[in-house]
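Hey, can you fold this one?
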Amino acid sequence: MALYIKRSFIFGSAFYLLMFLCFIGFEPFSINNETLLVEDTGGANTLRQVSFVGVFIALLLLTRMFRIELNFLSAAPLYLLVGLALISIAWSVSPVHTLKRSILLLIFVLSIHFIVLALGRGLAIYYLYRFLAVSIGISIVSVFVVPGAKHIGSQITDLGLVGDWKGVFQHKNQAGPISFVFVLMSIYFYSIERKVLYLYLGVVGLVFLVGTGSKTSIILLLPVLLFSYFFARVRGAAVSSQNIYTYIFTACIFVFSFLLVFLLGFRGLSLISEESFTGRGAIWSVVWEAVVDSPLLGYGYGAVWLVGDRMELEKYIDGFSDWLYLVAHSHNAYLEVLVSLGLGGLLLVLLCFIVSPFRYIMGLNDIKKVFFYLSFWMFFWLHCILETDIMNSTDPRWMMILIFYFLCCRSGGGLSRDRSRML
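Sure. Predicted structure:
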């Protein structure tokens, strides 16, 4: 019992610290949050980088001290992807940036893996939930008393963001998905424990989500939850009846929905003016031209955007607005991986974050867990069409994806307590 308390307290504290660095950082309510998002790519904020390295070293020592079994084989596709990012320095158009950013990527992935292995499924997700509850609670209060809790005109280039809530987080594009995950977790915990408190917290998360004005997250909320609920119910019937047609039917609905959103999103936004949807049409056109010229290997991890005078995309930007030089990512996770790591990287991403989670979900018998996991993954599968959530350095969306990925790895090694049995 004493060992459990000591281990959960130490790793839980490290987890809270890592979440603070990732979700909030050293400048909450900062007016210059677009600069902070640029620094997240690994090229500027030295203090933040040193902090992540320090947390990683501490976690590495703790895993050895507590003799935690490190099961890397269960997450082999992810580490192959990280390995590809590391060796892409060999063909990178900006080797220095690739080296710095891929090392930071490896450190961050290992840190999350250590924490999930040490705490186990239940405690890891419960600590995440408690951190989000406090952060979102503070964010809602701060919106009415702290100017930096909202986007204001002097800090952003896109005036369409003015007035949108971001709370303690760095940008509304981060606050939106964070709020969605919090609402989802509130629903799941209520279904398990039947405590009204979770419903109240879910409503608070929903209010904050609407306040962020994060259109993608708001639009996806109801369809994702309804589809996941329907899928879970059908999945439960399929488990009892072993009806192969049920599997085929639900799989077809999922594939059709994904392809429809992808094709409409990618093709539609590429045809409209470059200013629309905060310039995604222009960004995707530039990135796609670069992909066509180097489809197999890409240009190296972290070597595409914000690399100074050696920016390879400069020749493709000609003819578009100069603001594209300040873009931090492709605003499409699949395109970002394709232009950075080529077809091999894209295939590994699909294997890691679509095929593997879906296989895990199809192996679940509890319809509540099916609903919970499918809602999370379906949201980010679709959200990644409009944002770069995957392989995005130390971004909070990437952190949540990693946590859920390791939850789906059946890694074992966690603490055996009541919370662990919830997931």
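The two ends are 21 Å apart (CA to CA). Let me know if you want another pass with a different chain boundary.
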